[in-house]
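Hey,

The postdoc asked me to send both predictions to you directly instead of through the lab channel. I've kept everything plain text so nothing gets mangled by the mail client. Protein one:
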Amino acid sequence: MSNQENKIGVLVMSYGTPESMDDVEAYYTHIRRGHPPTAEQLAELTERYEAIVGGVFPLRENTNGQVAGLQDKLETLAPGQYACFQGLKHARPYIEDGVEEMAKAGIRRAVGIVLAPHYSVMSVGSYMKRAKEKAAELGIEMAFVEQYHLHPKLIVALKERVQDGLASIAKAAHADTGVKVLFSAHSLPEKIREMGDPYEKQLLETSEAVANAAGAEDWQFTWQSAGRTREPWLGPDILDTLAELSEKGVKAVLVAPVGFVSDHLEVLYDLDIEAKAEAAKLGIHLERIAMLNRDPLYMETLAESVIAKTAQIGKG
C-alpha cells in the first residue's frame, strides 16, 4: 500500500526535451506526429542543440528542477498533502505516463498544471485533453489550472528580471539613447484568432502588467520561434521587429520572453544566438532577462495555483 494514496497528485506538464543527443530524432519524430524528419531537418535541429553550451542535458534538468521545486514548495505550504509527477508532451515520461504513475501510487484525486502561464487550446489545452482522457480511463478525478498569467508573484518575479536587465544594459554602449523592452512568446498559427483563443490577449496582459510594475515605458510585444508550416503564424517575428527598430534608430533592446519559464532551445538558441546575431548586424545591443527556472516566486505561483484549484477536483 502506497504512502501516497491519501495525497493529491499534481501532474506537472511541459513540452519536453530530449534526454541526450541520441534522442533528438525520436523527439522530432514525435513532434511531427510520427513522421520522421528529413536528414536536412534533423541536421538543423541537431546543430541547434549542439550550439547551446552544455548540449541538450541542461534543458531536461531545468524541467526536472521545476518539478522538484514545486514539490518542495507544496510541502512547505501544505505538508504531506501533495505528490508531484511529471508528464511531457513530446518526450518520456509522456503525459499519459505521468497519469499512470499517479494511478500506480494509488492516487485518485489530482490537479494538472502546465509550465506555461498563458492558455491556448493549441498548447495548454492540448496537454489538458491528453491528461483528462488518461485520468478518466484510470479512474482519477482531475482539475486543471488553465492559466496563471497575472498571478501577483509571477508579475513580481518578471518585474525584478526586467529591472535587473535594464540596469545591466544601462552599463552597455548606446544605453544613453534609451532601451526598448521587447516582450516575446512562442508564436502559434493565426487561426487561433478566429477561434477566440485567449493566448494573445493574456500575453499582452502579462506584458503590460510587468512593464508597468518595472517602470518600463518604452516596450512592445513580438513573436518568436514560429513553426515551419504552410499556414500563417502570428507575427511579426522578433527578427523582423529588430529590423524595424533599427530603422527607427533603436540601439539597445532588452528581450523579456514572458511566454517561457525556463532556459531551453527557444531561449538559448532562438534568442541568445539567432536574435543576438541579427541584432549585432543591425548595430543593436541586445540582452535578455534571466529566466524563471526555480525562482522561489515562480514556485510559489505554481504551488498557490495548485492549492487553489484543489477544491475544484470532481466539480467539472
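Protein two:
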Amino acid sequence: MLLFSACSKKAPEKETEKPEVKEPKQTEQTEEKTDKYHFPLTGIGTDTEPNQRAVAVTVNNHPEARPQTGLSKADIVFELLAEGNITRFVAIFQSEAPENIGPVRSAREYFIELAEGYKALFIAHGYSPEAKKILTSGVIDNLNGMVYDGTLFKRSSDRKAPHNSYITFENIEKGAEDNGFSMTGPPASMNFYKEDKLESINGNAADHIKVVYGNGSQFTADYQYDVQSGQYSRFSDGEQTVEYQTSEPVLMNNLLVIETEHKVLDSAGRRSIDLTSGGKAYLFQKGIMKEIEWRNTDGQILPYEDGQPAKLVPGKLWVNVVPSLKDVSFEAK
C-alpha cells in the first residue's frame, strides 16, 4: 500500500473500520458527438441551450440536519467553516433543479461572494450582521427565509428549528417572479476534458481523501473513489452523504481542496475567509491527486496548473475550503 499525506507526507492513521459504501447508481456521463451545447458548470452535453440562471443555496451541515435534500443535483458544492468548527454548504444549481432543497441555513458574507461569482440568485434563511448589510443593500438578488418563512420557505415537522427549513425549486421560481428577478443568464463556462483525453490525467494515486475541520469527527469529510463509476462518494463523521428521502448517494467527479486565510472576527466565532488572493490547492480526479494552485477568476474559484486553467472531468465538483492543507490527508489503496 502506497501512502501519501498532505504536507508531512506521513500516512494518515488507518481506520479500524471502513464505512459501508452504498453502491452508486450508474449514470451516463458519455459525451455524444451530437450534443450541440454543454452545461457551463458540468461540461455535460445537452441538446438545448443551457440559458438558465444559477441558484446558490446555503445548506445546513449540522449533524441534526443530515441527510440533506437536493445536494445530489448541485453542479458545485462548497464546504466552508461558519462558526467554530461547524461547516456549511453553498450548493450551486444550474444544470439540474431538485424538487426540494434543504435544510436551508443562514448567510455569511463569503457565501454571498461565492454566489456573485456565478451570477446566481442567492437563497438563505437568516444572516450574520455583515451578511444582512450586504443583502439589504441590493447588490445581489436573493430570497431569505427571514422574510418568507411559512410562505416560500416551509418547516418540516420531523426536525427541529433551525434545522428544518426547506424551499422547493417551484417556490424559488415563484419568489424570483414576484420580485422581478430574472431566471435566465448562465454563469461563465469552466474548462473540461474531452472524453477521449481523460486517460491523460496523471499525478499521485489517491483513492481515499480526508478533510478535517476542527479536533472532532463531526465535521470530518471523507471521500472514497470508485473505479467502476469514476466518481467519489462522500462521508460525514463516518456516515455516507445521501439524499434524505431516497438514500441516493451524493456523488462527485472532481474534488478541489483550497487553502486560504481564515480570521475569527468576534466572540461568536464568526470569521472572514479570503476567497480572492489564491493559493495552494489539491485537485482529485479519477483516483489521482495533483498539487496545483487556485485563483479567483471573475468571481469563480478555479484550479490552475502551470499557470493555466486546469481541466475538470465532466460532471460534479465539490470544493472544500480549509485554513491549511495540513488538514487534508490522502492514500492509495
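Summary for protein two, as requested: The helical segments are 109-117, 129-136, 145-148, 169-179.

Thanks,
C.
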